[in-house]
């Protein structure tokens, strides 16, 4: 009965969403990919929302339920049937009564299983499709026969783009040319972003520091953005890593495709705030620095985070502590990918803490690659790991915390952050309903 109710609700919400889009005719930017979708969606919102009524997906509302809820402007009702019925009624009112509807929708589109995006492409008319990084082993590959099938599912979003629309691609992806050919076969405009040859290119990445008792401590990153022959500096505070700046480049590419100039776009990005749990910098207890990357985890994103910590190791004083939890939904690739991360971690960490059964392979590979046994600590519970690590911390330490969302690594961060009373504001998954799960 519960499954029937869910399917019925989803079908009704999707139908209402289709009718609402048909009635109000908003322009739509849809974002998919395997890395950085939510941050990219938020950055695009920042460049569009300066002088227009724009709505974006709440947090990571990217599923078959999340998309219509965003279009209808309704909240997640979780397990409350009455609230779901209220959402359906509110959608009906939106159809029958006049309303001030957004001029733009910025939607995140996810793919957990085959058919998720190709199904959406059948009913969602998209003006701009953005495809972020598609790494060799993407997250959610567990439910696909191969990584290539994940790519095919993400690429299905191109079919949703209306004639004359635009596809924005990550230029440094090995599959970018294939995606470009598909877009151009439909006579769609293509814009690219990335770190090498791209329409919107980022370069000259440096840490932005403050001076503390330990010496220099980063408070953000700077880069130079180049587009259409011009360039401009950009500083992002509260976030680390060149890969964390890719969403801003994607947003500039979207804005450029819509005719906005570089100076205007960079100014608009001043309104962008990095979302919690994505390489987010937080002050820690005992005068430490926390790099909170707890939203989710995949091999590509973890490797990029470790590259950032390696650069940080040469930049500042203090120990580099890695807290790495299970990377889920990798299927048969799980052991190999965890061991690759462990080998990389051995080159970065002064102390390695792992959380979860699968992360034992990270610890084992780190040990095999030269990290001393006395520097490796293994746990099964995120809260216990945070509690015990808090006692080990020393002034000037830097702590990267990362794991798949089901590992709930924000609980570790809460034990380590200087201001735990601000957890609801600063950490991911702090909604009351989430915390009950």
Can you put this structure into words, describing what you see?
The chain has 437 residues and is an alpha/beta fold. The protein folds into two domains: 2-196 and 249-271, 3-Layer(aba) Sandwich (UDP-N-acetylmuramoyl-L-alanine:D-glutamate ligase), CATH 3.40.1190; 280-436, Mur ligase, C-terminal domain (Protein-Tyrosine Phosphatase, Chain A), CATH 3.90.190.20. The protein has 16 helices and 15 strands. Strand 7 (200-212) and strand 8 (215-227) form a beta hairpin. Helix 1 packs across helix 3, helix 10 (299-313) packs parallel to helix 11 and helix 13 packs parallel to helix 14 (410-416). The longest helix has 23 residues, at 2-24.
Question: Which terms would index this structure?
Answer:
UDP-N-acetylmuramoyl-L-alanine:D-glutamate ligase; 437 residues; 9-stranded mixed sheet; Protein-Tyrosine Phosphatase, Chain A; 16 helices; 23% strand; 15 strands; alpha/beta; 2 domains
Short description:
The protein is α/β, with parallel strands linked by helices and 437 residues long. The chain contains 16 helices and 15 strands.
